[in-house]
Amino acid sequence: MVKHIVMWRLKEEAEGRSREENALLIKEKLEGLVGQIPGLLAIEVGIDFSATPDSAHIVLYSEFTDRDALAAYHQHPAHQAVAPLVGVARSSRQLVDYEV
Asked: In the prediction, which pLDDT does 85 show?
């Protein structure tokens, strides 16, 4: 199994939406990928409430059957449809992919 964790800091505003509005929209779109992509076992999206200077604003936790499933996820049209929304709203990104 592969775990894929991504954390983003979001811009104060993007595409005419506030940070909070974009966080909720990103959460909705990413959670909507469940059942659409083979090998994607689970997705959980959290929005930070601590608001510390070191905090990310949003986190994606996802599980895949294997590395090939993770690679296919990145290329899948459903994921590709969400990526531009995240790309325009984010100011920074950190990620970790690992096997268990």
From this structure: 96
